[in-house]
Each structure stands twice: as C-alpha cells, then as structure tokens.
Amino acid sequence: MSFPENFLWGGATAANQYEGGYLSGGKGLSTLDAITGGDKDTPRMITFKTKEGEVSQVKANQSLPEGALGYIDSEQYYPSHVATDFYHHYKEDIALFAEMGFKCFRFSMSWARICPQGTEEVNEEGLQFYENIIDECLKYGIEPVVTINHFDIPMYLADEYDGWSNRKVIDYFVFFCETIFNRYKDKVKYWMTFNEINFLRSWTQIGIHSSEPQSKYQAAHHLFVASAKAVELGHSINPNFQIGMMVAYIPSYPMTSKPEDVFAAIEYNRQHEFYMDVQVKGYYPAHQLKKFEREGITIAKEAGDDELIAKGTVDFIGFSYYMSTASTVNLENVKYIGGNQVPAVKNPYLTESEWGWAVDPLGLRISLVQIYERYHIPLFVVENGFGAVDEVTENGEIIDDYRIDYFSKHIQCMKDAIELDGVDLIGYTPWGCIDIVSAGTGEMKKRYGFIHVDMDDQGNGTLKRTKKKSFDWYKEVIATNGEQL
Ligand code: P53
C-alpha cells in the first residue's frame, strides 16, 4: 500500500467561512465580520467608519485611512455572520464526516470567540464551544487538526493597535495560544499557527491599515516571532505537540526554456519559499534581505528576535495547493487567468475552473517534491479542491463528477509522490469538505464540499445538508486507504 497506514484523511474548514454565530456565546467582532459578500464580478468590501465618523468602504484588499474603525452597516450583507452555521450544526456535520470515515478534521479557532477583544480576557463559552467540537471529533476517533489563526484578527486589535503592525499583538497572540494549548493539551496534537502566512497583508487578514510593503513586511516579522514563540511554548506545554506552519503553495513554471523565463519563475517561487525558509530553516534567506535593501524596507527587530526565530522552527509544513502558474518576461504575449489575489499568467497546457484557477494535478506532485527536497520535514496537504457551481437535480441529487475527477487525479499524484519520490506525507484535508463561504469572493456559489448546504449568495436558504455524489466516492477512497480512486 502506498499511503501509510495511519495516513490522516480528512477535510478542512475555517471559522469565519463556516461557523456563523458571529455574536453568539460571547464572541467579539473579527475583522472579517465587516467584509461584505460578493461574486466573481463584485469585489468584497470592508465597511468602516473614518476618524470623523463617516461610514465608508474600500475593496477588501485595499488600505484603510489612518484611524478608521471596522463597522457593521445594517444595509449590507456579511456572509460570515451566519456562514453555513457550523455553530448550530456541528454535531450533525461531524457525524457526516465520521460517516465518510474521516481520520482527521481541520478547523480553525476564532480568536475573537475565545478572546473577544484579542486581549487577555477569556470567554469561557468560546473555549467550551471548541471543546465540544473536539470532543465530538474524538468520539468518532477523528483527530482534530487546529489552525490557530485563519485570515482574521479581533476587530479591537485592528482598531486600537493597527493589528500586526504593532509588536504588542505578539504578546496577545501568544496569550491566546497559551490559553488553547493548556485547555486542549490532552486532546489536540496537530496545530498550525497562521493560515497561508504568505497571503497575510491586508486589514481584513491582519488588521493593518496601510498596504505599503514596509508595513506588510514589518507585520510579517511580528507574525514570525509570534509563531516561533507559539511553537516553543507549545512544545513546553506538551512535547508531543506537532506544530506546523501553513503556506499557500502556487508553483510557477518557466513559460519557456529561455533563461530569463527560468529566472522569472525562481523569483516568483521565492515569494512563498521566503515564508517556509523563515519558519522551517529559522532565518531570513539572503535574497529577501537583498530585496529589503533594494526596496528601502527596514525591519525593526528587537534583540533576541533572530534567536527566537531560529529556535521556534516548525515540526511540519502544511500547505494549500489549488493551482500552478507560469512565469515569463515576455508579458505582451501572455493571457491572464483568474487567480485569486493577483492575475496569474495562463499556462497554455492547462485548463481552468470557472473562477480561472488552473487545474494541474501533476503540479501537486511537483509541489510535494520541491518542498520535501528543500526542507526534509513531514508535509501535510491541508487544502486542495475544486470550486464549482453545483446543480441540484429535481430529485435533490448533486452529481459532481467534475469534483471526483479533480480529486482522483490529485490523490493519484500524492500517491506517486509517496511511492515513487519518497515524500513523507502525513495527511490530506480537502478544502471546504462541506460547503462554506468562499474566502476570495464571499459567495456560496463557489462550492468545494462533499456535502451540499442549502444557502445562497444573499444569505437565503434552509441550511439543510445533502450528500453529493462525491461523498460516497471519498468514503470509498478513505476506506481503501487511497487504493480505489
Ligand atoms: P476561495 C488564493 C489562492 C489560493 C488559496 O479559496 C487561497 C486564496 C485566497 O482566497 O486561500 C485558501 O474560497 C484559503 C481558504 C480559501 C481557499 O483557499 O477564494 O486558505 O480560506 O477558502 C479557497 O475559493
């Protein structure tokens, strides 16, 4: 058998895209609670109040005026407020995961549910909510895999501290980690600090008002220090903890064999390798320091930061893989495709999803090989999947053969990476194993799940759960430990 016997088959979600209950049980506001819905053509917006008290909005990836405060506008629709209501459906949902045979379930803890302001005041009801989820998982022998922070920050820390640009936020984050490590130390073994740390750059995600590279990299430094401290602390609380980093891995191929294109791909790939280098090797890579020098970026460090980063390296690399891209210096002839954060160069050998994400199963094997041979620590594919519009037939079925096709090809490539390349892969958690709100577009229409949830882009729906065709397919994959695809 190619997949190891204890391989962690499962699924993945994130609090703000799934839970809802945005003010229930003592939860404080998170930045993402002030981000509107949208679709392919309508960008998500941040609603806020200026220092002068005026209500305004900007695109979710843009900067905010200094002193602007996140604001919930009753005229707008915010998908995080109900999402697909895991808050009230967790027992039903985890029972469905168990029915599929999940060995693990990756979810994130909302910082603002546990520390409503992000500071050192703890909300017991929030802690209990996650304990219920964990207990429900353990009841079925499902290993909880916790993302400590997934794409948001308590609103108070954004409003009062300018989020991660402020060093004080490191202490608050470490306090949050200490709280959950202590509480769940005998129940949770697998942790990841920050989701897709290489994408953290906006008010939405890290609470910073400016979008200048200087602010972004200063905040990244604080995230690195916080993560390193969390890793050290976690290991001191329970030496069996496996604490990982999490990166969005989008490998870029040279468009041609022209050496300049090859170099362009190297430069593109450094964007994610930088974050892995710091968190796995424990130091800033030379090319990044040179880039800072060239671009006039100065990172304010405190004495001891470099040592902390060197000591607090992670136990495994969790990464998301959805697509690859291509790099070239001849930009005038290329076509651009969706991509999520930035337009991506179209690779003429690949087709794309409706949202313009290139479908490239071999790219997953390429990623596994590239990452493993660079870092030599265990890998965990913690996100992968196909966002698509699902049609519900007249008799209520969802025949998602396109999703089955996507997954079977990707799983085959993971198998090859284990069997033929010797990669140490510990698990696989397809994204949005049950339908949840899209992070990029804020819509429900872009679905990833094995389980359909009746909910639309305006927040209408019964929230009823229905198994898609892929549900039984994935159940069989897990039952045969990846032999039957
Ligand atoms: P949605 C961009 C590119 C690759 C992964 O994305 C990304 C993003 C940011 O949107 O994010 C991860 O929902 C992220 C999840 C997200 C998932 O990809 O835009 O960790 O929160 O839902 C899929 O289709």
From TrEMBL:
Keywords: Glycosidase, Hydrolase. GO terms for molecular function: hydrolase activity. It holds the Pfam family Glyco_hydro_1. It comes from the Bacteria. The keyword ATP-binding does not apply. InterPro entries: GH, GH_1_N_CS, Glyco_hydro_1, Glyco_hydro_1_AS. Belongs to the glycosyl hydrolase 1 family. This is Glycosyl hydrolase.
